[in-house]
Amino acid sequence: MKERPILFSGPLVRALLEGRKDVTRRVIKPDWWRRCLDQQDLEYLERAARMSPYGVPGDQLWVRETHALCWAAHWDLPHRVCPEGSPSGTEPCVAYYREGFDRVAPRWRPSIHMPRWASRIQLEVVSVRAERLVGGMSDAEAQREGCDSLDEFRSLWDKINARRGYGWDSDPWVWRVEFRVLEVHGG
User: Fold this and answer.
1) Are 82 and 76 in contact (CB under 8 A)?
2) 51 HSE (CA, 13 A, CB side)
3) Which of 41, 82, 130, 153 has the fewest C-beta atoms lying within 10 Å of its C-beta?
4) Does the pLDDT of residue 33 top 90, yes or no?
5) How confident is the model over 132-149, as a mean pLDDT?
């Protein structure tokens, strides 16, 4: 079993916490898979799914989200204390999460900078496969993504991916990662 980080935006973190999300789709970078995608070699894609950057069934993903690191617990809101404490006594050892936080925090940090200890959500990969974005979507799949409808999912997808050239209308190849939530820390 391997463990990997995965980034989620605020609305998707909320859907995870509310138990409305058990699937995520992530763009397969064309330069990485161009040969097999251009040929649409489905057998190769199935074998290649074992090399997905999101792992294979049984692997775990820890969620990175927008957060603030503090030296002590200041608010009665969801947070996580560093299990080892601050090794030097000078490093922040409490993490707060922006999703659901309605006050000004000391300084919000982008999800990409979240340390492993600060992650509050642990996922287990159930399945991974490659597919076209539009062809694999339906209202039921949009709901598994944490959205109320296919239109809401399409709008969220474009908000996150269109500026990078992977909008809905380009129908990119994606990894469809199904998972289950193992645990949520913080309290």
Assistant:
1) no
2) 8
3) 41
4) no
5) 95
Of 126, 6, 128, give the one whose Cα is nearest residue 58.
126
For residue 49 the two structure tokens come to 């799914």
Rounded distance, CA 180 to CA 98, Å? 23
Position with higher pLDDT, 185 vs 64? 64
Backbone angles phi and psi of 64, in degrees to 5: -100, 130
Per-residue model confidence as pLDDT tens digits over 87-112: 555 666 888 888 766 666 668 899 99
pTM of the model: 0.85
CATH 3.10.400.10 describes domain 3-63+121-180: yes
Closest CA to 129 of 68, 43, 65: 43
* Every domain of the chain and the residues it spans: 3-63+121-180, 66-119
